[in-house]
Design goal:
The complex is a heterodimer. Chain A has no helices and eleven strands. The chains are: A mainly beta, B mainly beta. At the A-B interface, strand 9 and strand 10 of A face strand 4, strand 5 and strand 10 of B.
Amino acid sequence: AQRVTQPEKLLSVFKGAPVELKCNYSYSGSPELFWYVQYSRQRLQLLLRHISRESIKGFTADLNKGETSFHLKKPFAQEEDSAMYYCALSPFYGGATNKLIFGTGTLLAVQP
Amino acid sequence: GAGVSQSPSNKVTEKGKDVELRCDPISGHTALYWYRQSLGQGLEFLIYFQGNSAPDKSGLPSDRFSAERTGGSVSTLTIQRTQQEDSAVYLCASSLSRDSHYEQYFGPGTRLTVT
């Protein structure tokens, strides 16, 4: 079964502290992994994807196939990082669909 | 240009009534997706359109749910005989292509409350 697990509903850190939002997935094939973010009163938007191997807003995420994880990290949290973060998986069905399977999300609260 | 739009933004309906939710994707986007987010749940995939056809309907929870897309643009999600468990935020997304390399752009959602 395809599943994305985000074990933490809420992660509260102080400004300047490191952040790690955990994501584990269950999928037998080679999925593509994403992080989406929803800031207060804004739409859900793509933050980063594993195939890009880029850093967005100081966030990075490395796909670990051995541990089936795709944790989101940032060395120094900022107050503007406060948002809801969703990890998502896109299974490869020979290109028949590009649906996203989402985790339940983690609310990141960065305290001043 | 304009992003994905959805209407209505909020809908309150009585149990047993039918509702229609509308999605206007970004112009030129051939792929369109419906998701829903129930309280305490993650986003749940419902249906995917490529053009006017729906090759993946695997997420529709029951035969009370249906969707169509016309002219390769606007899509309508219809829920018949609504139940309280249908209460959720329904999100629409569109992308240039079904290829996962293309970003999905999300609309603001329709909050459905079934009383």
